[in-house]
């Protein structure tokens, strides 16, 4: 599709020499002198466009040439308009140039003006011009001459709604009402299809039809068809296409997150009288009249969408219309709460009709929005809606990228409201995470925003386990997807052990647990290691590795959130989970390493915040730190566990810390240190990094400084270390520089421990020493002041 | 409203680095994002144009990344189709949505819907509160027309040399970025106009 030829064309366009370009300009100038533009001229104009647009740096056209293009914009031939607009868009507007506003602006010229607008004033003038043309239309104008008015207007609204004055808004509202509600119900003159039967009979006015072929019995909408269309029917389409945006912009109280309770009191009393008398809507002011007509139009669309369309594209349009209609109804109900009672029956019926149809899932999201916004006023039970949206959609449609995007967006935009009105939302995280497990790169952004809302003290532990098992969930979804796509007996290239396991009844429970929809049935499964073994080949499936890469990010979000709401008991439990799971992860090496890194970071953080956690969980931490195998398989995490033990296992952190506890910790660490410094690492493992050994030594020194009986034991070890290393290389350290660093550290600790009283304050300084106080600390301030003065007064 | 429509590469291009994308066609709708907000008022028109081009390039890059990750995950092989098999190419196309956060690159959050047809991506950047079902249908329709009228399944460069055809297509099916609720009859009528223009 994309060829070398295209690539070289772009290159040529960018690298064209100035002299050649000037020649091209003069050639063009000559070509454009005539009234008609031949094929050659058109080709040349296209080339000019390519030259101008291929580079991000602007080229300026010669003034004469640019003026010629401006003139060409008003040419009656569309090709001239298109080409000149395209060229002018890529250059700078002439200063002081004003397109002649008195002409009827064609669509392409209007587009150019729009893109070159530099101020709200420009946009206002454009609107004024368009609306003036709309009002004073010459009857001989071509059919589509004013179709672009509404889209251009809509575009202006997006960027600066204040460009329309009150009067202009009223005018447009009135026009919209006319086109939406009172468009012709007879078919327009179709393009002649020729043939046998053209004659007087075919010129009889024929009423419009519905999408299923039956004759239409009500006013014209976008879901009505005919052989041809009248102009007001076209305007009906354009009006409806911009209606929601118009209502959102000018019927200003339209916002999806408004708390409807407060507003209903006020609005209900003021407007109820007006809306109740819908038959006398002619007496309503334009804004309210438009609202009423929008309401009627949407109700009609909902009705029409129940018909069986003949064409597939029309069925898709019906779905889109349902979405739009429900959104507009939601909007008008937010504006006028009394309309809720008129609307709800219709929405409820729609929900009933569509809730079991997965192909209409995307229509159910605006319906859910409606229930969320207005369910409380109408005292309607919304339980079923949430069961479908949270319980069913992620289970069945996790692989629909558009549904995932829209559902997560719905959650993000309505989070506050959902947390208030749908408390069961937090229980559905196992289901919602399926979207992430299937398509991590596209969904991770949304989950970074949503995950904090899913973290509750009740489900925190289960959530942590679930996050750690996301790659397994990802693999399971792949298997589930393959299982439904492939017949059971067919061999698939490579044999999938995991696919067989997925279909095996004895392992069903494992996979069902992963695929559960709600939290609360258990933190994790017993046979986690079995599951990991079954899924070992999934470790290099792209979907699984993409998912694994997002888990660390989510873990950070999880821990950042949990520290704000958890009590010490829960944090202690989380530490235990971290220690336990550090060896229970799906075997993807990069993944395991990253998770250990995240665990280390947050273990440190939790212990810093609550130092007494270390004494509390000393048993489990010691068990972890006392196992030599952990030095080799989980180096990073091990180092941090040892560090927190050394740092926080003291009476000053928790009064329950006894001498015997310190001693037993010391002994456990000492044993490991002896082991790893007396022999080579086991086969297949690398030598422990100097950091591990230094941390162990420092921890021992810290503990000894708190219980002076232990000092001789440390000193003994450190002197032995010195002796051993003097004889040259050792089996447990491959790098000479590393060895030197270790020995140096050992000597520092040894000399420090010779003065036990000082050792404790140096190794574990009390908090007021390490927290900087800057100018508040008289000991620090003076030197700082002197230094500052010195540097100011000395010339160098 | 639709902010912009792009056609860009989603395959490796030798002249570019790995994650980059060559933009073959881009059309940004409406007034310039920066002009009416406080931030970029002091920029000259040249700088504004440059900024806009960079924004478009940023979108293309993000979509390119999304397309390659999606294709990697699904493991599907890209099958080259011949001219004449546009419907097949469209059926086989992968699709998705990229969430573009506020500021990256447009001032408010937008959604970039994309269709990956072999080595090219067709992207529609929609504003918030846009009807994405309608946008999806419109994107498919636009893509089909581009593939057909510009013979994009072949080796030609019409997408570069006949971009006025895309302009006209957009002016009918997506005028000034407005998504339209077109039933098959309205769509037929507009498509006839487009075909008549292309025939010239």
TrEMBL record, chain A:
Domain called AP-5 complex subunit zeta-1 ARM repeats: residue spans: 317-434
Domain of life: Eukaryota
Sequence ranges assigned to domain AP-5 complex subunit zeta-1 N-terminal TPR in this UniProt record: 1-276
InterPro entries: AP5Z1 (IPR028222), AP5Z1_ARM (IPR055450), TPR_AP5Z1_C (IPR056856), TPR_AP5Z1_N (IPR056857)
GO cellular component: AP-5 adaptor complex
Coiled-coil annotated spans: none
Domain AP-5 complex subunit zeta-1 C-terminal TPR stretches: 446-792
Protein name in the entry: Adaptor related protein complex 5 subunit zeta 1
Native organism: Oreochromis niloticus
From TrEMBL, chain B:
Superkingdom in the source lineage: Eukaryota
GO BP of this protein: double-strand break repair via homologous recombination; endosomal transport
InterPro entries: AP-5_subunit_s1
Gene it is expressed from: AP5S1
Name this polypeptide is given: Adaptor related protein complex 5 subunit sigma 1
Cited Pfam families: AP-5_subunit_s1
GO cellular component assignments: AP-type membrane coat adaptor complex; cytosol; late endosome; lysosome
PANTHER family linked to this entry: AP-5 COMPLEX SUBUNIT SIGMA-1 (PTHR16120)
């Amino acid at each position: 599709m994309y060829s070398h030829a295209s690539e070289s064309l772009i290159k040529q366009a960018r690298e064209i020499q100035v002299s050649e370009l000037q020649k091209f300009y003069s050639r063009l100038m000559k070509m454009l002198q005539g009234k008609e533009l031949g094929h050659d001229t058109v080709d040349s104009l296209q080339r000019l466009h390519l030259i101008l647009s291929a580079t991000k740096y602007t080229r300026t056209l010669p003034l004469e040439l640019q003026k010629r293009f401006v003139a060409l914009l008003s040419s009656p031939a569309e090709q001239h308009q298109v080409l000149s607009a395209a060229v002018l868009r890529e250059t700078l507007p002439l200063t002081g140039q004003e397109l002649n506003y008195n002409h009827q602006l064609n669509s392409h010229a209007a587009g150019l003006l729009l893109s070159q607008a530099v101020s709200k004033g420009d946009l206002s003038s454009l609107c004024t011009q368009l609306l003036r043309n709309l009002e004073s239309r010459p009857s001989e104008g071509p059919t589509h001459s004013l179709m672009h008015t509404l889209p251009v207007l809509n575009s202006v609204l997006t960027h600066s709604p204040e460009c329309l004055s009150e009067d202009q808004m009223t005018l447009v509202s009135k026009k919209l009402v006319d086109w939406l509600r009172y468009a012709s119900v007879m078919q327009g003159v179709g393009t002649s299809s020729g043939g046998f039967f053209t004659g007087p009979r075919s010129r009889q006015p024929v009423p419009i039809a519905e999408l299923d072929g039956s004759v239409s019995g009500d006013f014209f909408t976008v879901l009505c068809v005919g052989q041809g269309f009248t102009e007001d029917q076209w305007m009906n389409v354009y009006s409806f296409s911009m209606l929601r945006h118009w209502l959102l912009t000018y019927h200003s109280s339209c916002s999806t997150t408004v708390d409807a309770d407060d507003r209903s009191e006020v609005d209900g009393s003021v407007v109820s009288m007006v809306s109740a008398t819908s038959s006398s809507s002619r007496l309503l002011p334009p804004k309210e009249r438009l609202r009423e007509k929008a309401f009627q139009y949407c109700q009609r669309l909902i009705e029409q969408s129940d018909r069986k369309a003949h064409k597939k594209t029309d069925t898709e349009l019906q779905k889109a219309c349902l979405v739009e209609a429900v959104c507009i109804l939601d909007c008008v109900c937010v504006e006028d709460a009394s309309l809720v009672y008129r609307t709800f029956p219709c929405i409820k019926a729609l929900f009933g009709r569509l809730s079991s149809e997965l192909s209409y899932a995307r229509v159910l999201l605006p319906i859910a929005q409606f229930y969320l916004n207005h369910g409380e006023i109408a005292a309607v039970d919304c339980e079923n809606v949430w069961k479908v949206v949270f319980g069913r959609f992620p289970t069945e449609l996790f692989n629909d990228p558009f549904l995932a995007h829209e559902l997560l967006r719905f959650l993000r935009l309505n989070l506050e409201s959902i947390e208030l009105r749908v408390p069961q939302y937090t229980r559905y995280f196992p289901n919602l995470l399926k979207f992430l497990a299937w398509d991590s790169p596209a969904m991770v952004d949304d989950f970074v925003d949503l995950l904090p809302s899913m973290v509750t003290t009740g489900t925190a532990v289960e959530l942590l386990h679930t996050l750690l098992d996301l790659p397994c969930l990802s693999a399971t979804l792949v298997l589930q997807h393959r299982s439904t796509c492939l017949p059971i007996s067919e061999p698939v290239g490579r044999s999938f052990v995991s696919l067989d396991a997925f279909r095996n009844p004895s392992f069903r429970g494992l996979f069902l647990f992963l695929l559960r929809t709600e939290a609360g049935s258990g933190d994790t499964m017993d046979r986690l290691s079995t599951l990991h073994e079954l899924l070992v080949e999934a470790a290099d499936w792209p979907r699984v590795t993409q998912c694994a890469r997002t888990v660390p990010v989510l873990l950070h979000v999880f821990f950042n959130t949990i520290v704000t709401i958890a009590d010490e008991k829960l944090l202690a439990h989380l530490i235990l989970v971290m220690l336990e799971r550090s060896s229970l992860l799906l075997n993807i090496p990069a993944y395991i390493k990253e998770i250990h890194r995240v665990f280390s970071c947050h273990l440190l953080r939790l212990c810093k915040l609550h130092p007494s956690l270390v004494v509390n969980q000393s048993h489990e931490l010691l068990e972890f730190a006392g196992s030599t195998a952990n030095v080799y398989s989980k180096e990073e995490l091990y180092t941090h566990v040892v560090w927190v033990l050394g740092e926080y296992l003291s009476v000053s952190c928790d009064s329950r810390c006894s001498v015997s506890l310190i001693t037993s910790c010391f002994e456990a660490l000492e044993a490991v240190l002896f082991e790893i410094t007396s022999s080579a690492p086991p086969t297949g493992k690398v030598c422990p990094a100097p950091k591990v050994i230094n941390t162990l030594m420092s921890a021992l020194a810290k503990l000894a400084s708190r219980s002076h009986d232990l000092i001789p034991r440390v000193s003994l070890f450190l002197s032995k270390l010195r002796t051993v290393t003097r004889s040259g290389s050792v089996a447990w350290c491959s790098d000479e520089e590393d060895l030197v660093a270790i020995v140096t550290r050992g000597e520092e600790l040894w000399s420090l421990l010779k003065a036990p009283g000082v050792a404790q304050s140096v190794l574990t300084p009390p908090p007021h020493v390490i927290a900087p106080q800057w100018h508040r600390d008289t000991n620090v301030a003076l030197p700082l002041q002197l230094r500052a003065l010195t540097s100011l007064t000395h010339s160098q | 409203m639709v902010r912009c429509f792009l056609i860009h590469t989603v395959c490796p291009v030798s002249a570019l680095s790995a994650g980059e994308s060559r933009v073959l066609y881009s059309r940004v709708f409406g007034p310039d994002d920066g002009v009416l907000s406080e931030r970029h008022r002091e920029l000259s028109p040249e700088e504004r144009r440059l900024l806009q081009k960079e924004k478009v390039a940023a979108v293309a890059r993000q979509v390119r990344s999304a397309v390659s990750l999606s294709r990697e995950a699904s493991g599907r092989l890209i099958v080259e189709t011949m001219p004449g098999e546009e419907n097949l190419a469209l059926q086989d196309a992968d699709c998705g949505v990229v969430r573009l956060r506020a500021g990256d690159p447009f001032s408010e959050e937008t959604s970039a819907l994309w269709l990956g047809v072999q080595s090219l991506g067709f992207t529609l950047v929609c504003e918030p509160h846009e009807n994405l079902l309608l946008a999806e249908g419109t994107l498919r329709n636009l893509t089909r027309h581009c593939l057909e009228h510009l013979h994009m399944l072949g080796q030609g460069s019409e997408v570069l040399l006949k971009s006025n055809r895309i302009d006209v297509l957009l002016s009918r099916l997506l005028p000034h970025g407005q998504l339209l609720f077109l039933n098959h009859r309205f769509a037929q009528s507009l498509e006839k106009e487009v075909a008549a223009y292309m025939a010239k």
